[in-house]
Amino acid sequence: MFDVKKVRNDFAMIRNHPDLIYFDNGATSFKPDCVLESLMHYYTHCNSNIHRGDYDISFEASNMYEATREAVKNFLNARKAEEIVFTAGDTASLNTIAYGYAEKYLKEGDAILSSEVEHASDILPWYVIAEKTKAKIVFAPVKEDGRFDLQAYEECLRNNRVRFVALTYVSNVLGYIYPVKEICALAHRYGAVVCIDGAQAVPHLPIDVQDLDMDFLTFSSHKMCGPEGVGVLYGKKELLDKMDPLFQGGGANARFDAKQNVILKETPYKFEAGTPNVSSVIALKDAIGYLQGIGMEELAAYEYELASYFLKRLEECDNVIVYNPHTDTGIVSFNIKGVFSQDAATYFNSKNIAVRTGNHCAKMLVDIIGVGDTIRASFYFYNTKEEIDRFIDVIKETTLEKCIEVVL
Predict the structure, then answer these.
(1) Percent of the residues in the chain that have a pLDDT greater than 70, as a whole number
(2) Is the domain covering 35-292 a CATH 3.40.640.10 domain?
(3) Per mean pLDDT, which range of 94-103, 115-124, 179-188 is the poorest?
(4) Which one, of 311, 305, 316, lies nearest residue 384 by Cα?
(5) What does the pLDDT look like over 308-365, one tens digit per residue?
(6) Positions of E strands within 198-275
């Protein structure tokens, strides 16, 4: 297992805020020094546009940009670097698939299968596509605790003309890992294409896209120690080749003329119109290297250990309701009895503890867990049990009266 104390020294945010307990890693992560240094290196040594400049620093930046594509390929065990597309974020990746593939190939009477656990970014694009194509949305039932129900899922596939499956890999509220390999196998058996939202999975779990046989996978850089403003769209090459790009513009076309003839570049470049976020894409490679240096299996095991320890300590608190006591990951959602989640978080903030509250963009989940707003503590590999102990002490003393005093 890696040395957590040593790891914490790699993060300027932790050094600059030694008393801060940051448990909102599901929203975004801190960046290690190597990522910050990579950003600075680009802007001070090879600041230029890529793939277009006939001079040394442009060649250097272009090579570094493409090296990240290769790094992502290896990180996911994709077959080819051409299966990796850079976007502005996970949401942009999902919308690229929605408008570039689903809108193009879905027809009236087809079904898009999703679930009520999904984040807004992985459900709202499909609403629009369903309206445009006259396809229908089908929700695969989940179990009472919010876990995925494979049997109910297969019944949905069997009883509907499902041609597209859009599901998360890890619930951003409940922390449950979906059985993605089985989801993909069943979908393919019934003739459907699968898009997996990996925003809460790729930063925390070892993933092999070939073994899982997923058709599309999306995720963001900023949740995995990389810079903001960069997303990744993985897609099987044969599917990406059939897709239309979401944007048109410079860098994505090979040629065009006044007769409106346009020839696009090959995959993946046809999806990357305009000037990309070069510095952040380059720095993503350093984030990936950093995570690989820790080890994704070790990272996942440690986060689960932290969540298990937190849940065990929460049993000491008679003022807490937990909604996912059997989480699979570093995500734990709970509430303080009789206290609105945001008021509790404001009180926690007064004690220098950062958590996320609300519905976490999973607005349909209220029908499953029976509450619309929760407190979410999401751990990452640089968090510690000592931080959890401090948090537990604060939770034990949290009352409505104390929260009101802070709010007022």
Answers:
(1) 100
(2) yes
(3) 115-124
(4) 305
(5) 999 999 999 999 999 999 999 999 999 999 999 999 999 999 999 999 998 888 888 8
(6) 216-220, 231-235, 253-256, 262-264
- Using CA atoms, how far apart are residues 351 and 345, in angstroms rounded to an integer? 10
Structure tokens that stand for 302 in this block: 């440690």
Give the E-state strand segments of 283-396 in sequence order.
320-322, 331-336, 353-354, 356-358, 374-378
Q: What is the mean pLDDT of residues 147-160?
A: 96
Strands (E), 225-330: 231-235, 253-256, 262-264, 320-322
Look at residues 99, 72, 339, 343 and name the one whose alpha carbon lies nearest to residue 217. Answer: 72
Query: Structure tokens of 314?
Result: 């929460």
Please calculate the CA angle 65-218-147 and round it to the nearest 5 degrees: 150
Domain boundaries, the chain: 4-30+295-407, 35-292
- Give the number of other Cβ atoms within 10 Å of residue 161's Cβ: 15
Token pair for 123: 């459900």
The per-residue pLDDT for range 366-404, each reduced to its tens digit, is 888 888 899 999 999 999 999 999 999 999 999 999 999
CATH class, domain 4-30+295-407, is: alpha beta
CA 246, CA 97: separation in Å to the nearest integer?
A: 8
253-264 average pLDDT score: 89
Mean pLDDT of 197-204: 98
Number of neighbours of residue 207 by Cβ within 10 angstroms = 21
For residues 148-165, give the mean pLDDT: 96
Residues ≥6 apart with Cβ < 8 Å to 124: none
Q: Are strands 253-256 and 21-22 parallel, antiparallel or unpaired?
A: unpaired
Q: Give the containing element (helix H, strand E) for 197.
A: strand 193-197
Radius of gyration of the chain (CA): 22
3-state secondary structure of 47: coil
The residues annotated as belonging to the active site are 361
Q: What is the pTM of this model?
A: 0.96
Mean pLDDT of 73-95: 98
81 Cβ neighbours under 8 A, 6+ residues apart: 66, 69, 70, 73
